[in-house]
Each structure stands twice: as structure tokens, then as C-alpha cells.
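Marked as duplicate of an earlier ticket. Keeping the data here for the record.
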Amino acid sequence: MFRRQRKAFTLIELMISFTIISILTCIAIPSLIRAKINANETSAVASIKAIQEAEEVFFKNDWYKIGTYSYANFLDDLCVLPNDQPALITSSLATARAMGNWYDAPTEPNQGYLFNEISQYGTQPVTVTLPSGQVISQTYGVIAAPAGYLVTGQFMFAGDNNSQIWMMDPLGDFDLTQHKPLTLYNLSDMSANGWQPYQ
């Protein structure tokens, strides 16, 4: 007696296979998304540290306007330096910023984050005596916000001229339709605005 040779899977076998693959996918995808968010957040903190180092070099070399000893007003200023000096940050970081006041027209994110330089909003100003004898106070702040809340990142990060880095979860203060924070945070009073020191 001849047995009929089987040429295809049965419907039950296909349904079981599909169910197993679906369960594995449901387990794996959230882990992959969280890993990507963690990588983006680590990159954002590293970018803020790079900006802080660049700002110190920019300030000490008096590259804004000779004789003024000022921090850069925009991230672009850290790329285009006098006397053909090499850029202090990458152009991709300098252009991953907001146009206008705050995320009016976001540009291409850098590792899932957009950056905004906020002149005169650091926690503690640096006092400088110019050659003319004039005493000035200088400070800056920079904020990194996820281009998509809970999509490219969860936390906002901030840094200033005191080499501090802060973080906060903008939950409840984030426009999910436009992927931007609703409030322009004042870095001069971090704890009052819900920021925590980054560990």
C-alpha cells in the first residue's frame, strides 16, 4: 500500500507557527525599542558633554567677538571658527537644533535628539574682567529633547557652563503631535523646574 506523499503544511501547523512567531515578536520588539532609546539617550548626554567642552574652548580663545569673552550664541558658532580653526563639534550636531525660539521648525535630529542653545541661561554665571576693565558675567545652557517622546527618547537633558548635566521626564509637558516640549525651561533654577542631576 502506498502512502500519499505530503507536500504542504496543514492549516493547524501554519497557525501554530504564526502564533509562536507573533509571541516572540511581541516579546522582542519592546526590548529593541528600549535599547534604541537607551542608546539615543546615552548619545544625547555625550553630545551635551561635547558641547560643554567646545564652549569652554570657544570662550577661552575669545572667538565670538574679540575682546568680549562670550560663549557661542548658537551651536553653528562652534563649527565656523575664525582663522580656519577646526570645528569644535560635528556639523550634524550643530544642525540638529531648533530654528527660531524653540522647535518652531525642527531640523534633522542627531541620534533621535534635537538640541537648543540657550544663551544666558546657565545655573551660575562666570565673571570675567575684560582688558578694558569692564566686568561681565557670561553663561549658557543647552537642552537636548527627544525628537519623538517615547519613540526616540524619554528624557530631556540639559547642560551649562558649570559642566553639570541635568535630566527630566517631560511627561505631561510634551506635545505628542508635534514632538516638542511645551515649555521653554529656564535653566537658572533647575530644581524648581523639575530637573534632577544626571548620574
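See parent ticket for discussion. Confidence is low (pLDDT under 50) at residues 99-105.
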